[in-house]
């Protein structure tokens, strides 16, 4: 049946034009029949938007990243429905540039704009409705969206590498300067003399050629920065554009030595000024000649809040002389005494290109921070510099030159001391020169030149942001059409004179009294003027005027660009898909990426895949083929019989960024035939089970259909494995360890839960096991064991001279345990410990010799031997409590473990308890976290009984050579559901001691996920019993630079008092730490990171009065005298006196308060310091103990003498022991420091506080110096910071 036009589904297409800033927010809508060809879609879009068809791309825009989407292919015969368009839904498309080139505008005669216009000198490309608009002007809200705004001007932008906007602004300004560009083109690069990569002039030449001839929207500057010797880190450093200008000009002068361009920078940008001091008594003048490349103009005079309104005012201020009088008098060489004098600057010569730097960045001595001045300062489009020439002083016969007493340079003016001999400056032919020998001639020349010092503005470099960072862009006037353009990195747009005025700074409108607070941060920073002189003003070179070497460079760059375009076209038509292959010899699954052109045939793709997988010599090419593969489900979807000559683009469904399937390079033996895989089939891995030998065979792959019945499926398997179907039992493993017996003959595979990839077990024997209920059958138990058996490698303790003794002790204790009742014997199984350590190679002395068989506890090895940096470790691999003795091995860690037969290691990630063990014990997931006693644990010997049905098999294993000499290993196959307690009982005869006297550690590799080898190591030593916790003890040293010092690991038990734990600690402190203490001379207290907290009283009971947990930490504090803390109502604070008169802090002194009263605190502080109570002022310390603070800040930064009566309210909130209190005498005056003393003290404090890790003061990011390396790479000076 053929649908009529009215019945055909329609496709709604919404297209957004992202090539233009004006149209990026507008959309066009097309409602097309589903059978519309894609090429018709492109034609309709071209007609709608006015572009030439074939000069733009369409990509999907349904919420995806445009850059990641492949363009639609308009060359084929596909319909919109075939291409993935959905009828009845909105299909969003983006119209984008084609190969980085802007779409061609359809002219009135429906022709495209001639591409050759791009090859001539760049100027505005005509486009209907394209006018200068302030909306195109880039505001201070610079964002990535401007990249989508394709330039309609014909000018090419520059890509911002990261923070290189300042570089882009300067490069565009130099490019738009005809005299500089033309001179650069005249210079010829000699490849035999220099490496082109490190040649700055050559890379600038290339960049300018690309800016002039490229069809791209924006080009990279990486080749230029590479010639500077910069690496990628420089792209993340923002520098000052004026600083860059000077450094680049210096580098060009060095590179251009002994060439025609050697004096180019000076001819274009260098001016001269006279720095003079004139005696007001005799008229004697001392002076020197300085050169400058730019004139720095102050925005706001020093000490004034009022900025200069105009650039002209700032220029007058620049040359305004000052009077040296009083203590600043000048020593006159003629008068031979100190006299009043006039000091100032006088312009002698203005350059052809005049650069004015507006000094918007300043230093605020009040806040000691850099600031940016956003005050308004206007600048004219034409600047008359003749008003800044004053020849009055030149007429004076008393003016003399002085070569050795010149005044200092003004401000940051770029100056080089010049010879005082005027005859050296005869080469200057513009501006004002005072070299003439005749005064009359000099005056005449001055008068003539004054009339020719009219400059026109052509570049404004704008900074938007603050002193700490921002964004640069340039507003430049083209000398070809007098049109202003905004060059903002990639984006170039037309702007108007009104937009230039927006860069004056200040407010954009009247905001009343608070206008200064709303000043715009976008304002002009550098202005470049050109002298209006028809005899010197140059025009840009036309293409036919290029020197030969530039013509060759243009051609070379065109070819490179065409090559890039061709490469992009190839990339657009290349299918990239994951490729897998099971190596026929190595039997490992290899993975790679197949990249093949969409027009290559399947046969050619097989040849490419064959080479990628390096199968030559392993299997012949004609024994390989590509099949559609689902790697996630390990499923072969289909094979491609008879399609060897079909293009890959058709087979794969087109060129896509990602595919929902993979390819497998399948191999066969020469005597085999490839199996045909049809779509819709499911793959089944069949394992044959032998009940007699209790073995499970490796899988055989069989393909079936979901609509097949179980009976049909059994006959299919029967042919594959050669077993009778009549007696066959088929068990499906639907998901991990979910075993289902397929015993309904007429049920389909789909109904039984088959999917793409399946695993079944088959058994066909005449045994009576078939008549038993499945869950009670031998088959079920075998499969259950098969699924739950894991392989572990166990490292036994090294055999020491005491090993025989250990065996004797083990046998003796084992005999005693058998003679006693079961309840007592089961107590030895309570210890179940599983620790995480880094590597078995780190284990030293893992088995200590036993000198006293009666004292096994002394064997326990301190965890500090495993990790020597306990004081800095916040996460510790501590021993788990005995409540976890009933936890199964599979719950120790959820990471996968390989099975004994190496099958399906992922199936271990979830566990299913055996029928016999169901519901008997809690797992760690259900046990109360960190609870030593609350988890249920059966002490009646059930854990020992569990070992009877849990599979366990151990055999010696030869470990790698690096495992340690003399160390013994076992390879253990064990049911992962076995409890740790039962697991340790199985290991008892192998280790030689009772399970309560060794610990089990899981081995991790270098703090990474544990290895697939699942290594376990055994260490001798008493394990934790139920209700015991391992505790880390640190010493609190309040007056030491490092107040927290790790001492030892101890074991505290539930119900133990603090005094009992102190008694147990005494011998350990003496033996391990060398601390000979009495029980009343130290205390224990709470530790929260490095902060001391609640003091524990001797009668406190763990778990009742003090919450305790695994990996617990406590402070041990040695007392100077008897313990003052007797009651929980008392409060112990640490006080430290601040002495402002000497700028010093006293050591800590503990104050014990009976209440939270502020008066009591002041009274105690008065008593220990001798300060009268009414003069005591205090403040709470901030941050982590010991609350370090600089002595330069403490006097004013802390909240002194808060108006409260108790300590437990705001702003103090002192409710627990250990708070830090600073106090002072309010009558004590702060020491007055000289600048030298302050700087010295600041260095000392900075060094002291940095050692303790505390912040000194705000320190802004250190700026990296801007350098250009002439040899192309920086010198690695290791002595430099």
Write the topology of this structure:
Layout: E1 10-17, E2 27-33, H1 38-49, E3 56-60, E4 90-97, E5 157-158, H2 165-175, H3 178-186, H4 200-213, E6 218-219, H5 222-227, H6 241-255, H7 264-269, E7 271-279, E8 285-292, E9 295-298, H8 311-319, E10 322-324, E11 330-332, E12 337-339, E13 341-349, E14 353-359, E15 361-364, E16 369-372, E17 382-384, H9 439-450, E18 454-466, E19 469-477, E20 484-488, E21 491-495, H10 497-501, E22 522-531, H11 548-572, E23 574-582, E24 589-597, H12 602-612, E25 624-630, E26 635-639, H13 648-651, E27 662-667, E28 681-690, E29 695-696, E30 700-705, H14 710-721, E31 728-733, E32 739-741, H15 749-752, E33 757-764, H16 778-788, E34 789-795, H17 803-819, H18 822-825, E35 834-837, H19 942-946, E36 952-957, E37 969-975, H20 980-991, E38 998-1003, E39 1015-1020, E40 1028-1036, E41 1044-1053, H21 1058-1073, E42 1082-1088, E43 1091-1096, E44 1112-1118, E45 1131-1139, E46 1144-1145, E47 1149-1153, H22 1158-1169, E48 1176-1180, H23 1194-1197, E49 1220-1225, H24 1235-1251
Parallel strand pairs: 1-4, 5-6, 9-14, 23-27, 28-33, 34-39, 35-38, 40-44, 45-49
Antiparallel strand pairs: 1-2, 3-4, 7-8, 7-13, 10-13, 11-12, 14-22, 15-16, 17-18, 18-19, 18-22, 19-20, 20-21, 23-24, 25-26, 25-27, 28-29, 28-30, 31-32, 31-33, 34-37, 36-37, 38-39, 40-41, 42-43, 42-44, 45-46, 45-47, 48-49
Helix pairs in contact: 4-11
């Amino acid at each position: 049946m053929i649908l009529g036009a009215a019945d055909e589904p329609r496709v709604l297409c919404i297209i957004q034009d992202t090539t233009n800033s004006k149209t990026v927010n507008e959309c066009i809508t097309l409602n097309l029949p589903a059978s519309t060809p894609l090429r018709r879609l492109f034609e309709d879009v071209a007609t709608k938007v006015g572009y030439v068809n074939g000069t733009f791309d369409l990509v999907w825009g349904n919420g995806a990243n445009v850059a990641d989407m492949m363009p639609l292919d308009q060359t084929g015969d596909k319909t919109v429905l075939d291409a993935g368009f959905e009828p009845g839904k909105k299909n969003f498309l983006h119209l984008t540039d084609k190969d980085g080139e802007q779409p061609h505008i359809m002219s009135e005669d429906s022709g495209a704009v001639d591409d050759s216009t791009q090859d001539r000198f760049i100027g505005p490309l005509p486009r209907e409705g394209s006018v200068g608009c302030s909306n195109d002007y880039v505001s201070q809200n610079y964002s990535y969206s401007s990249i989508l705004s394709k330039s309609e001007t014909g000018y090419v932008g520059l890509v911002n590498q990261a923070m290189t906007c300042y570089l882009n602004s300067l490069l565009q300004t130099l490019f738009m300067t005809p005299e500089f560009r033309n001179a650069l083109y005249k210079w010829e690069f000699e490849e035999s003399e220099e490496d082109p990569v490190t040649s700055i002039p050559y890379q600038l030449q290339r960049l300018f050629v690309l800016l002039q001839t490229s069809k791209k929207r924006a080009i990279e500057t990486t080749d230029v920065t590479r010639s500077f010797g910069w690496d990628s880190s420089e792209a993340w450093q923002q520098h000052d554009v004026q600083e860059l200008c000077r450094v680049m000009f210096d580098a060009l002068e060095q590179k251009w030595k002994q060439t025609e361009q050697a004096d180019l920078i000076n001819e274009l940008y260098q001016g001269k000024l006279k720095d003079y001091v004139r005696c007001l008594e005799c008229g004697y003048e001392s002076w020197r000649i300085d050169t400058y490349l730019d004139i720095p103009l102050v925005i706001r005079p020093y000490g004034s809040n009022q900025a200069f309104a105009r650039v002209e005012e700032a220029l007058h201020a620049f040359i305004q002389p000052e009077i040296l009088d009083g203590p600043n008098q000048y020593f006159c060489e003629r008068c031979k005494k100190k006299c009043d004098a006039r000091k100032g600057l006088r312009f002698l010569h203005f350059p052809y290109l005049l650069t004015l730097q507006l000094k918007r960045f300043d230093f605020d001595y009040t806040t000691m921070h850099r600031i940016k001045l956003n005050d308004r300062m206007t600048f004219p489009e034409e600047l008359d510099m003749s008003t800044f020439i004053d020849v009055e002083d030149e007429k004076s016969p008393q003016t003399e030159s002085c070569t050795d007493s010149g005044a200092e340079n003004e401000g940051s003016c770029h100056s080089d001391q010049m010879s005082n001999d005027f005859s050296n400056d005869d080469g200057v032919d513009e501006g004002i020169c005072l070299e003439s020998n005749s005064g009359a001639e000099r005056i005449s020349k001055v008068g003539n030149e004054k009339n020719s010092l009219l400059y026109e503005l052509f570049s404004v470099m704008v900074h938007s942001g603050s002193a700490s960072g921002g964004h640069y862009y340039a507003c430049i006037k083209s000398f070809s059409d007098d049109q202003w353009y905004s060059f903002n990195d990639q984006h170039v747009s037309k702007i108007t004179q009104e937009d230039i005025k927006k860069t004056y700074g200040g407010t954009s409108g009247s905001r009343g009294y608070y206008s200064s607070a709303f000043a715009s941060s976008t304002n002009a920073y550098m202005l470049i003027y050109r002298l209006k002189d028809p005899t010197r003003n140059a025009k840009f070179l036309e293409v036919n005027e290029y020197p030969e070497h530039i013509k060759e460079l243009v051609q070379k760059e065109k070819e490179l660009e065409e090559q890039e375009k061709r490469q992009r076209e190839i990339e657009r038509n290349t299918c990239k898909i994951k490729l897998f292959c099971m190596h026929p010899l190595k039997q490992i699954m290899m993975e790679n990426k197949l990249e093949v052109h969409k027009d290559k045939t399947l046969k050619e793709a097989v040849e490419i895949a064959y080479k990628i997988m390096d199968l030559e010599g392993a299997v012949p090419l004609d024994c390989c083929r590509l099949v559609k593969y689902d790697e996630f489900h390990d499923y072969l979807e289909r094979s491609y019989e008879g399609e060897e000559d079909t293009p890959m683009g058709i087979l794969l469904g087109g060129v896509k960024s990602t595919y929902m399937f993979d390819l497998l390079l399948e191999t066969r033996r020469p005597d085999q035939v490839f199996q045909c895989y049809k779509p819709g089939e499911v793959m089944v891995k069949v394992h044959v089970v032998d009940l007699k030998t209790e073995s499970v065979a490796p899988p055989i792959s069989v393909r079936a259909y979901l609509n097949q019945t179980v009976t049909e499926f059994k006959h299919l398997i029967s042919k594959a494995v050669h077993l009778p179907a009549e007696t066959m039992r088929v068990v499906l493993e639907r998901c991990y360890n979910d075993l289902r017996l397929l015993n309904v003959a007429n049920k389909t595979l789909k109904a039984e839960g088959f999917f793409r990839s399946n695993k079944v077990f088959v058994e066909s024997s005449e045994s009576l096991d078939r008549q038993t209920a499945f869950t009670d059958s031998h088959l079920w138990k075998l499969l259950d064991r098969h699924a739950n058996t894991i392989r572990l490698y166990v490292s036994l303790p090294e055999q020491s001279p005491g090993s025989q003794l250990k065996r004797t002790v083990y046998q003796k204790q084992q005999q005693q345990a058998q003679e006693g009742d079961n309840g007592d014997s089961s107590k030895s199984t309570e210890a179940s410990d599983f620790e995480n350590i880094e590597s078995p190679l780190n284990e030293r002395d893992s088995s200590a010799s036993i000198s006293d068989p009666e004292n096994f506890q002394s064997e326990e090895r301190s965890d500090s031997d495993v990790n020597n940096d306990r004081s800095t470790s916040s996460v510790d691999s501590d021993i788990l409590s005995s409540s976890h003795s009933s936890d199964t091995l599979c719950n120790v860690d959820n990471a996968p473990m390989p099975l004994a037969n190496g099958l399906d290691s992922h199936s271990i990630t979830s566990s299913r308890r055996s029928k016999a063990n169901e519901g008997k014990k809690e797992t760690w997931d259900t046990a109360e976290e960190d609870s030593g006693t609350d988890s249920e644990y059966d002490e009646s010997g059930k854990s020992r009984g569990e070992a009877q049905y849990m599979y366990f098999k151990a055999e010696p294993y030869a470990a790698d050579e690096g495992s340690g000499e003399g160390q013994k290993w076992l390879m253990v196959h064990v049911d992962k559901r076995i409890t740790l307690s039962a697991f340790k009982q199985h290991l008892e005869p192998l280790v030689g001691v009772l399970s309560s006297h060794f610990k089990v550690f899981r081995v991790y590799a270098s703090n990474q996920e544990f290895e697939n080898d699942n290594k376990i190591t055994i260490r001798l030593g008493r394990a934790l019993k139920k209700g015991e916790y391992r505790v880390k003890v640190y010493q609190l040293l309040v007056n030491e630079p490092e107040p927290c010092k790790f001492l030892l690991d101890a074991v505290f038990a539930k119900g133990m008092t603090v005094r009992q734990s102190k008694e147990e600690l005494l011998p350990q402190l003496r033996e391990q730490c060398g601390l000979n203490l009495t029980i009343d001379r130290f205390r224990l207290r709470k530790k929260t990171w490095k902060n001391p907290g609640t003091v524990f009283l001797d009668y406190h009971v763990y778990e009742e009065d003090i919450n305790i947990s695994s990996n617990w930490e406590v402070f041990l504090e040695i007392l100077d005298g008897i313990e003052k803390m007797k009651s929980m109502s008392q409060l112990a604070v640490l006080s430290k006196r601040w002495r402002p008169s000497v700028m010093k802090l006293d050591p800590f002194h503990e104050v014990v308060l009976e209440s939270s009263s502020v008066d009591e605190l002041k009274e105690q502080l008065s008593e220990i310091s001798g300060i009268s109570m009414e003069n005591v002022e205090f403040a709470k310390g901030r941050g982590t103990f010991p609350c370090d603070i600089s002595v330069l800040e403490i006097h004013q930064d802390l909240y002194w003498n808060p108006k409260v009566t108790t300590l437990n309210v705001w702003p103090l909130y002192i409710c627990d022991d250990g708070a830090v209190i600073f106090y002072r005498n309010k009558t004590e005056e702060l020491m007055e420091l000289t600048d030298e003393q302050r700087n010295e003290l600041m260095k000392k404090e900075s060094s002291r506080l940095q050692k303790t890790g505390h912040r000194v003061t705000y320190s802004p990011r250190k700026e990296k110096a801007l350098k250009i390396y002439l040899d192309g790479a920086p010198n690695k000076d290791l002595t430099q910071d």
